[in-house]
Amino acid sequence: MNAVTKLIDTKTAAKWRKDFPILDQTIDGKDLVYLDNAATTQKPACVIETLSRYYSEINANIHRGVHTLSQRATDEYEGTRESVRRFINAGNSSEIIFVRGTTEAINLVANAWGASELKSGDEILITEMEHHSNIVPWQMICEKTGASLKVVPIDDNGDLLIDEYKKLINEKTRLVGVVHVSNALGTVNPVKEIIDIAHAHGALVLIDGAQAVAHMPVDVCDLDCDFYAFSGHKLYGPTGIGVLYGKEALLEKMPPWQGGGDMIRMVTFDRTEYNDLPWKFEAGTPNIADTIGLTSAIEYIEGIGFDAIKAHEDNLLAYAIETLSSVPGFRVIGTAKEKASVLSFVIEGIHPHDLGTILDTEGIAIRTGHHCAMPVMNRFGVPATARASFALYNTAEEVDTLKAGLMKTMEVMGV
Amino acid sequence: MFDLKDLYQEIIVDHNRSPRNFRKMEDADIKAEGYNPLCGDKLTVYLKLDGDVITDVSFEGEGCAISVASASLMTEELIGKTVEEAEKIFGTFHELVTDRDSPIELDKVGKLGALAGVREFPARVKCATLCWHTLNTALHDQDGKEHATVSTE
Ligand SMILES: Cc1ncc(COP(=O)(O)O)c(C=O)c1O
């Protein structure tokens, strides 16, 4: 047993593991090894119970009934806003807007802020390692407004070229959009430094935190970011609920994005007065159940604490790199100085899709493909990669199973 | 009958490692490009026709074992067939890899039967059919243009 394995506290991970009912199953007779956590994480029993309790005891529409159930649903829904505020240390819960996920959060900013603020000649600056969800909304809004999209390149390790960033940012840059942790490479970006530089040039910053919030503490006040976006489903919470954090002064100035019920104070056919923050951005009946489920996910994570989660996942990642490096032809894609929970790789002579299919027959779930980051694949000259991504319930034994699966794949494929 | 769950039959592994008719055809009558953006699979199919008869087929490109082996097997199957026969084979093949309940008649599908296991892996159907869709485009979109692109996404 090597040094890293010893650091992995298997007993604790095994205890956490029991909180996730889905993990206790077999796929074609093999124990499920779930290593696709960057796509979505599994849900602890407490989250599942909250969803079930909501529908069996509370369900009612919010903000519009005088009856008891409506009041309960409203209290729990708004209670989640406070949980999220605390979780990312926002100054005020009115800065927490509920959306479907990271994608919708970014689209909201691009449309509400971008459509009203951008004009021809303005620039939006993103990075070469963005997820399509932090590329396409900006392309669309640039097309509409005449602004242009600039891209900060990355190096062969998958680190952002900060010097290039400093060269590209200028007084025309209105917003910098950057991923906190890359889903394709695992790179942890120096977001605080990026934000400081942007602010020195008068640009706003949007951080795509989809892959960060489940793995490290995020403090939006300390970062001083203008917008921060994430999805509940990558955070042990339900699908269909995500968060846009925005600084209050900015959100106040932004026009609403969608119109309808709940986002208004008063409507006549001549004129509509919009509601206050945050409801101005939450038109229509929201995803009440899953929002409430998110509170349970946050409480679950807070109960364990990021010190323990991060230590465990960092050890797992180091163990995985060390263990898999002995597989012939194994090559890591993304060797940034600082990485979190994501291990993208290729194996010489085997297409990632064949790998994914054969591992599946061994009960091992990994992601293969371009990971919604086609520019990253182009940058590294590969059509696709295989990606193992870790969560708090993964174990060193699962990494060993993955290695055995890779060896079996090579045998099947005659490599 | 082999175990369908055994997707990677020896014949597939073999055609992936040494694909047949894997070459660029400089004097092709028609060529078409196929692309599967989800997988990044890319291939070009070349055809030579003598009237209605396919006298030569080749392909080049890159992709997973399923798409490469399928293209390789397709070229072997088609040489000497008429366009009409080729279309019929495509229909039979499509059913073979997509319809879980269709009978597998090895005498009808020949070597292509090795890909029957794909029906158990719906996510891989696009890989197995990319070359055939590309061929189809080559045969049908040739009026006026000698170059067409198809995408299985
Ligand atoms: C870095 C990153 N950004 C954005 C997204 C989009 O998240 P969602 O699909 O939940 O909107 C993802 C998820 O795949 C991601 O990994």
Can you describe this structure?
The complex is a heterodimer of chains A (415) and B (153). Chain A is an alpha/beta fold and 415 residues long. Chain A has two domains: 3-31 and 305-413, Alpha-Beta Complex (Aspartate Aminotransferase, domain 1); 48-302, 3-Layer(aba) Sandwich (Aspartate Aminotransferase, domain 2). Chain A is built from 15 helices and 17 strands. In chain A, strands 4-10-9-8-7-5-6 form a seven-stranded mixed sheet, sandwiched between helices. In chain A, strands 13-14-17-16 form a four-stranded antiparallel sheet, covered by helices on one side. A two-stranded antiparallel sheet of chain A has the order 1-2. In chain A, helix 3 (45-58) packs antiparallel against helix 11 (288-304), helix 5 (102-117) packs parallel to helix 6 (136-145) and helix 13 crosses helix 15. Chain B has 153 residues and is an alpha+beta fold. Chain B is 38% helix and 21% strand. Chain B contains five helices and four strands; from the N terminus they run H-E-E-E-H-H-H-H-E. Chain B has a four-stranded mixed sheet, covered by helices on one side. The radius of gyration of chain B is 14 Å and the shape is globular. Chain B starts with 9 loop residues before the first helix and ends with a strand. Chain A binds chain B through residues 28, 350-354, 357-358, 361, 369-370, 374, 377, 382-384, 412-414, and chain B through 5, 7-8, 13, 16-17, 37-42, 62-66, 121, 123-124, 127. Bound molecules: pyridoxal-5'-phosphate.
Write the layout of secondary structure elements.
The complex is a heterodimer of chains A (about 425) and B (about 150).
Chain A: H1 3-7, H2 10-17, E1 26-27, E2 30-31, E3 33-34, H3 45-58, H4 68-88, E4 96-99, H5 102-117, E5 123-127, H6 136-145, E6 148-152, H7 162-168, E7 173-179, H8 191-200, E8 204-208, H9 220-223, E9 227-231, E10 242-246, H10 248-253, E11 264-267, E12 272-274, H11 288-304, H12 306-324, E13 330-333, E14 342-347, H13 352-361, E15 364-365, E16 367-369, H14 374-380, E17 385-389, H15 396-412
Parallel strand pairs in A: 3-15, 5-6, 5-7, 7-8, 8-9
Antiparallel strand pairs in A: 1-2, 4-10, 9-10, 11-12, 13-14, 14-17, 16-17
Chain B: H1 10-17, E1 30-36, E2 41-50, E3 53-62, H2 65-78, H3 83-98, H4 106-109, H5 125-140, E4 147-151
The complex binds pyridoxal-5'-phosphate (PLP).
Pyridoxal-5'-phosphate (PLP) binds near residues 131, 133, 183, 210 and 372 of chain A.
